[in-house]
Amino acid sequence: MNTTPSSRKAAHTPASEPLAKSAAQIPPLKTRGLARFYHATRYSLQGLKTAYQTEPAFRYETWCALALLPAAFWLASSPLHWALLISSLLFVLIMELINTAIEAIVDRAGREYHELAGLAKDLGSAAVLFALFIALLCWGSSLWSRLLV
């Protein structure tokens, strides 16, 4: 058996790979400081825009929150009370974004039915439902106390 270096198979090592990689294969460098904040904000706004354009539930809840915003000034008896009312609306939107992210990940994993995929989507939807209950509780109790007092 010939064991000279030329007859051996080359081991798969990083050194045996080509040095030049395409631009698509090179991960971008992490930015720092204000540049990082700028890029993070830009990606967040892009996510909000995409959710608004593609998710009817997020669109409905956004319009509902905007419609209730002026009512919060009338209902609130203190700045803390106002913050609670606004926070409950934001919580619904946050849960809808998380639910949308879960659905996107599950859909990316595969379109075929799987029990765990259905469970993940159902639990995300249940989280939105509980957020809506919390908002209804905050707004309903505020309205109740405002009309009775």
What features would you describe in this structure?
- With 149 residues, the chain is an all-alpha fold.
- The chain has a domain at 56-149: Helix Hairpins (Orthogonal Bundle).
- The chain has helices spanning 33-54, 56-75, 79-109, 115-148.
- The longest helix is centred in the C-terminal third of the chain and has 34 residues, at 115-148.
- Substrate binds at residues 36, 57-61, 96, 125, 139-144.
- InterPro entries: DAGK, DAGK_prok, DAGK_sf.
- This is Diacylglycerol kinase.
For the structure shown, list the relevant keywords:
flat, 4 helices, 149 residues, Helix Hairpins, mainly alpha, 72% helix
Offer a quick outline of the entry.
Its EC number is 2.7.1.107. The protein is mostly helical and 149 residues long.
CATH architecture classification of the domain at 56-149: Orthogonal Bundle
Rg (CA only): 26 Å
The level 1 CATH classification of the domain at 56-149 is Mainly Alpha
Silhouette: flat
**Uncertain parts:** 5-19
- Going by helix content, strand content and strand pairing, the class is mainly alpha
| Helix content range | over 70%
Number of strands: 0
Average predicted confidence as pLDDT: 85
CATH fold topology of the domain at 56-149: Helix Hairpins
Q: How many helices?
A: 4
EC number: 2.7.1.107
Function: Catalyzes the ATP-dependent phosphorylation of sn-l,2-diacylglycerol (DAG) to phosphatidic acid. Involved in the recycling of diacylglycerol produced as a by-product during membrane-derived oligosaccharide (MDO) biosynthesis.
Subcellular location: Cell inner membrane
Membrane topology: Multi-pass membrane protein
